[in-house]
Structure formats: C-alpha cells, structure tokens
Design goal:
heterodimer; A: 277 residues; alpha/beta; Glutaconate Coenzyme A-transferase; three-stranded mixed beta sheet; B: 265 residues; nine-stranded mixed beta sheet; three-stranded antiparallel beta sheet; 28% helix; globular
Chain lengths: 277, 265
C-alpha cells in the first residue's frame, strides 16, 4: 500500500519537466499543481500564469477554484494576451495540456469527436493548442483516463500536430514535438519507431497488458520498464500543506463528482476573509 | 462629451444579421446582462464572435438567435461543456468558423490596424485550416520566402465588453484578466461597455493603474449595469456562481426551464 495517491504521483512526475526562466502552465488541475510544485521545489524562477493573466508571475499559492482571488495579491504583472502569444512565439512557454484524444504519433485533439462538419460530440474547440505548437519546444499532455477512446490510432481533428506527417513540409521554424504524456496508467513519450508512442514508466501496480488493452494501438515498449518514481516526502508535504491544502486534486480522481465540487466550493467561499462575494 | 447610454440605446445598434462580439472568457467577465437582453429581443440570424465563449454564447444559441459562430473555444472552463453549443453543433443547426486563440487575436489585430490580414505561424499544419468554413489562406514572405498563415481581419459590427468601472466620458477599466478585449475594442465597428458602476472620473489608484484601460475614443457608449456579468465572475467584485452554472449545465436543454431562466432573471 502506497502512502500517496495516484494524483500526488502525477503532480510529482509532471513537476519534474519544468525548467526555469519561462512560463510554466498546467491546463488541468493536476498539471497546474505540478507547475506550482516545480516553482516551490526546484525552479524558483518559473513564471506562473495559471489562473489569471492579470496576476502573472505570481508566487506559489494554495490552489483555489476561483484562483484570481488568491493570486492577485502577488502577481507581478498584468500580462496581455497579445504579449502572452509573443512570449510563446519566442519559446518562453512550457505547458501540460489536458486532451481528449491523443494518437499514436502524438497528434492531439480537444475540438470535436467524429466529423467536424457534424460532430458526434462537440468539445470545446481548438483553443490555444494550434498556437502552442508554434513556439513551444515540446507539448506535454495530461490524459486523465487512459482508454481506447482517449489513446487512439488517429485523432479525429488535429489541434496539435504529431510526428506522423513531419516529412510532408519542411518549414523554416520547426513546430513543437510531442513530448511526455502522463495518464492514470503510466508515463509515455514519442521515441518509439517513426516517432510513435513508447512506454517510459508504468505507475505502481499497472501492467503492460493493461496499457495495451486500454490503448487504440500497440504502444511500443522496451524489455525493461521502470516504475514511475514515487513522490518524495518533501513533495508530499508541499502538495498537502502548501499548494493544495484544500484537496482540489481530488477533482481529477475517480471519486470526483458535483457534490465534492460543491463541498470544496463552499469551503473556499466560506473561508475567513473570503465572504465578500 | 457624455457617453452614458441606456441598454435599449445600445441594443438599437444591433439588427438581424449583425455580427455581435463579446469580451471576457469562459466563465469570466461575460456581458451576461446584454446577452439576456439580446436573447429576448426581436432579432435573429446573428453572427456571434468571441475568442473564448461561455454562457453568453450558449444562451444566444439556445434562444435561436445565432446563425453563425466565430470562436476559438466555447465552454464553462473547468466546469464542463456548453450544452446548447454542443446540441446545436451535433444537430448541425448552426454554422461555425473555428479559429485558435492566436489566430482570432491576429484577426482582431488586423482589423485594429485597419489592415486586410496579418501573417502568423500560429495554426499552421493543423485542422483549423482544413474545415469547410476556414477563413484562412497562406502567404509567402517577400523577404525570406517562408510560407505563413494569412488571417483576414475580423471587424464585428458591435462589440460588448463588461468592465469594472467606466466614467461618464466613456473610458473604462478592467481590473482582472483582459482576455482579447483590448484588441476587440479596436477591431469592432461599434463598441459598448457595460460597467458595474459609472463614475465622474476613473480613480487614480493602484487597481486602475494595474488594470486594462479602454479609451473613450473607441467606445460609443457606457452603460451602468451592476452584476452585469451575471453568473460569471468579475474580479474582484464577485466570483462566478458555481451552483447556478452547474444547474444551467444540467437543465439548459430542457426548453421550459431554459425559457423561464433567460426571460425571468
């Protein structure tokens, strides 16, 4: 029995990818927490913008549902969206993106399931993924539930490009490569044959068979597969006491539901000093 | 020149077939009071333009007012998908033009600069270029020969932005995240700003200095609209109303509930 949860393992693992002197963004709750953990632990000059551009380059704060209210006091600048994309164009963004579909060669999709003209399921639209592609060195992905519906042979709509058609057009500026992928089963990269998905590590108790059963293609694997490293005592203490004392990470766990969300919301809005609105 | 107007005066700038843009993003600082008024107005066939659509866009789609949507995202941020947007797309009942964030920003910036288009790399080699309604083309850089994406200017007929405060001259300030609003302000043909309160002169304080300033030279009129962002958040005045947002998501596609919701509030 581990003395940590899956969510804590993922936060710790994702935090290890951030480097300094650039924006560190996590577009899911767990990856947002991982950027904060990285800044608290080993990348003090990481530039946090998650929550609000108006409170950009803020200190490490406890994650809240209405983040703007807790971050604003330490934000060093009001970053306009125009300047944010200038920073991206200059390679100053590192990001974990939450995606709905990710394919064998690292193409990603958050826009639609099925044909775009009349989708089977309309999701949120391409948002900033086609933009992050042209500035970031790599795009890292957080996939909450590893299934045949999320880890697929081919995405229905390309928001972020993968390795499959890299030979089609050689451009002056290279787009981002697909980087690491963290799911509830393991950690993956795209260093397999022809830039395909490869197992980097499996979480404790997860077998390669369960990864293959839950993927839409055969994921490349080496003979020796390490176990995803456990969070350290220091990381667990920071996660539990500093960056997520309210337990918002539970919203990306199997127990998440509207009742839990409302319980966390009431706790946040009724906290001393927070009653104003 | 005094620029305070009534909501009715502002809505008179919108007619059937107009393109109407909204500021804010997702469940942050959305002009909900304006959207509700448009939902009950005698108008249809609107083109809605928004970088990050939220309940204002969903409401107008649900009310049957939208013929076309130009967007990079429509959703309720961390709290799920937009029910009417989803339903309309899956039924094929609205036309959509899908941008990314940086390409719709480029479209606003081209309009702001009074240029026909701007080149970008953002969006290249992705499927936003392959949709049947994609507005983009490519252009060869005359200096380097590099192929770039050409994003045509987007000039909405009327833009509505909700701000914390405005003055009687028509200046306004946004304290929280400005989203694409400073560019939308300069791209739209006519701009109205709703504000929590209208004062004689904007205060000379740190919050105003650190905020996003919207100049009266771009603004046709300002409207005093307390709680103008409805169930979405306006930092630092009020948080989003999470219970109302979750209820909307569950019940919005029930015609009886939905009709009462946007007519009675």
């Amino acid at each position: 029995m581990n003395n940590y949860t899956l969510e804590e393992l993922l936060i710790s693992r994702m935090a290890r990818e951030f480097r300094g002197n650039a924006m560190g963004v996590g577009a899911t709750i767990l990856s947002d927490l991982s950027a904060r953990l990285a800044k608290a632990l080993h990348v003090p000059d990481l530039f946090l913008t998650t929550g609000s551009r108006a409170a950009a380059d803020c200190d490490v704060h406890a994650k809240a549902l209405a983040d703007e209210w807790t971050l604003a006091t330490s934000g060093r600048m009001n970053l306009s969206w125009q300047e944010m994309f200038h920073l991206i164009a200059h390679g100053k963004l590192q990001i974990w993106i939450g995606v709905v579909q990710l394919d064998q060669y690292g193409a990603s999709n958050i826009s639609v399931i099925g044909p775009w003209a009349k989708p089977k399921a309309q999701l949120v639209g391409a948002r900033g993924v086609p933009d992050d592609l042209w500035g970031c060195e790599i795009l890292c992905y957080h996939v909450r539930k590893h299934t045949k519906c999320t880890i697929v042979a081919k995405v229905d709509f390309v928001c972020g490009r993968g390795n499959e058609d890299r030979s089609v057009k050689v451009r002056t500026v290279r787009p981002a490569r697909p980087g690491l992928v963290v799911t509830d089963l393991g950690v993956f990269d795209f260093e397999g044959p022809d830039g395909s998905m490869r197992v980097v590590s499996l979480h404790p108790g997860v077998t390669l068979e369960s990864v293959q059963e839950n993927s839409g293609f055969v994921v490349h694997s080496e003979t020796e597969i390490p176990v995803t490293p456990a969070p350290t005592v220091e990381e667990l203490q920071l996660i539990r006491e500093v960056i997520d004392p309210h337990g918002l990470r539970r919203l990306e766990s199997a127990e998440s539901n509207d009742a839990l969300l409302m319980e966390l919301w009431h706790r946040e809005t009724n906290a001393p000093g927070n009653r104003r609105a | 020149m005094k620029k305070t107007v009534t909501l009715a005066q502002a809505l008179a700038a919108v007619s059937s077939g107009s393109s109407v843009a909204f500021g804010g993003g997702g469940i942050q600082r959305k002009p909900m009071a304006v959207a509700r008024a448009l939902a009950t107005a005698d108008l249809d066939d609107l083109t809605v333009v928004t970088m990050l659509g939220g309940p204002e866009t969903d409401l107008l789609i649900g009310a049957g007012k939208v013929r076309e949507l130009r967007f990079a995202f429509v959703g309720f941020d961390a709290f799920g998908l937009a029910p009417h947007f989803r339903k309309a797309r899956e039924a094929g009942s609205i036309s959509v033009v899908e941008y990314s964030e940086a390409t719709i920003i480029a479209a606003f910036e081209a309009a702001a600069k009074n240029l026909p288009f701007l080149p970008t790399r953002f969006g290249l080699d992705t499927d936003i270029l392959t949709t049947p309604t994609a507005p983009f083309s490519t252009v060869i850089c005359p200096f380097s020969g590099e192929e770039l994406l050409a994003v045509p200017a987007l000039c909405p007929d009327v833009a509505f932005i909700h701000a914390n405060m405005a003055d009687r001259h028509g200046n306004a300030v946004i304290i929280g995240d400005g989203y694409a609003d400073p560019l939308l302000l300069q791209a739209a043909k006519t701009v109205f700003v709703t504000a929590e309160r209208i004062v004689d002169e904007l205060p000379d304080d740190a919050a105003t200095a650190g905020g996003t300033f919207l100049s009266r030279l771009w603004i046709e009129g300002v409207i005093e609209m307390p709680r103008g962002a409805g169930m979405t958040a306006l930092y630092p005045e009020y948080r989003f109303d999470l219970a109302a947002i979750l209820e909307y998501q569950k019940r919005a596609t029930d015609p009886e509930w939905f009709s009462a919701w946007f007519r009675d509030q």
